[in-house]
């Protein structure tokens, strides 16, 4: 039974340029609800998560409060804050909101709001692992052979496929570790950029600042990130399949 408290920082500030729509991707609809709704609903119902900080894009806080938090009655969302220019800036704003709320211990789940199909089983696996290792990320082994290219676009090497994972979210850390790592990274931001280090996920912050080992935890191939119109089409198919399965389970029917 869960006893250590956990918070989720959910990032919903992306503009979604590759989606090619006027509406930000996290507010596009899957079936009859916005993409962002689904992950928030999972956290709302989860036995693992106690509180949620929602990080919105510039000028989007009123919309999120009205059309997401209030409309769907999310009780665990304790604050909606505005994100920054880069993803890691937005994470930092979410972490600062947690610190302001008095978070000093426990565990922090950092999740992309454009990943609608996170589920309770994944959250439970991540929680069980972070209790032991203090740092873990959700991911899946790649299905395809991966090639590493050089600057000229030629194959430089072929890593062993069994060792290559595609990384997803949530990424989960002890509060003490992630607060410390992000605080130091923000202080060294210019130095890291000058070294050509681009921070694309939270694990990189911990890797570069703390050198702490980070465990991989199996997620799901369904836990896709909505980035392109094709992803939205796939999400509709996944929703239809999972929605039917859920309905059958509730009614006691077998697939």
Structural overview:
With 255 residues, this protein is α/β, with parallel strands linked by helices. Helices cover 40% and strands 22% of the residues. The chain has 8 helices and 11 strands. Strand 8 (148-149) and strand 9 form a beta hairpin. The longest helix has 23 residues, at 229-251. The two termini are 30 Å apart. Mean pLDDT is 91; it is low at 244-255.
Features:
255 residues; 7-stranded mixed β-sheet
Largest β sheet strand count, sense and barrel closure: 7 strands, mixed
Query: How would you state the average pLDDT, rounded?
Result: 91
User: Would you tell me the structural class of the helices and strands?
Assistant: alpha/beta
Shape: globular
- Low-pLDDT residue spans: 244-255
- Helix percent band: 25-40%
Gap between N and C termini: 30 Å
Taken as a percent bin, the fraction of beta residues is 15-25%
- Summed up, the helix count is 8
Q: Widest sheet: strand order?
A: 5-4-1-6-10-7-11
Number of strands: 11
């Amino acid at each position: 039974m869960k006893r250590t408290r956990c918070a989720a920082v959910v990032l919903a500030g992306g503009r979604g340029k590759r989606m090619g729509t006027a509406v930000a991707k996290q507010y596009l609809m899957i079936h009859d609800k916005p993409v962002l709704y689904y992950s928030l609903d999972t956290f709302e119902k989860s036995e693992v998560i106690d509180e949620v900080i929602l990080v919105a894009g510039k000028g989007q806080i009123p919309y999120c409060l009205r059309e997401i938090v209030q409309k769907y009655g999310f009780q665990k969302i304790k604050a909606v804050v505005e994100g920054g220019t880069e993803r890691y800036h937005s994470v930092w704003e979410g972490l600062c909101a947690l610190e302001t709320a008095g978070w000093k211990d426990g565990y922090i789940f950092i999740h992309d709001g454009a990943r609608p199909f996170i589920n309770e089983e994944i959250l439970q696996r991540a929680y069980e692992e972070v209790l032991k290792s203090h740092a873990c990320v959700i991911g899946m082994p790649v299905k395809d052979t991966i090639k590493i290219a050089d600057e000229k676009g030629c194959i430089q090497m072929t890593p062993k496929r069994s060792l290559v994972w595609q990384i997803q979210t949530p990424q989960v850390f002890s509060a003490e570790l992630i607060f410390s790592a992000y605080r130091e990274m923000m202080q060294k931001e210019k130095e890291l950029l000058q070294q050509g280090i681009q921070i694309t996920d939270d694990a990189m912050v911990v890797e570069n600042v703390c050198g702490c080992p980070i465990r991989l935890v199996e997620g799901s191939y369904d836990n896709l990130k909505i980035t392109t119109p094709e992803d939205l089409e796939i999400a509709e198919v996944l929703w239809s399949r999972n929605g039917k399965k859920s309905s059958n389970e509730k009614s006691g029917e077998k697939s």
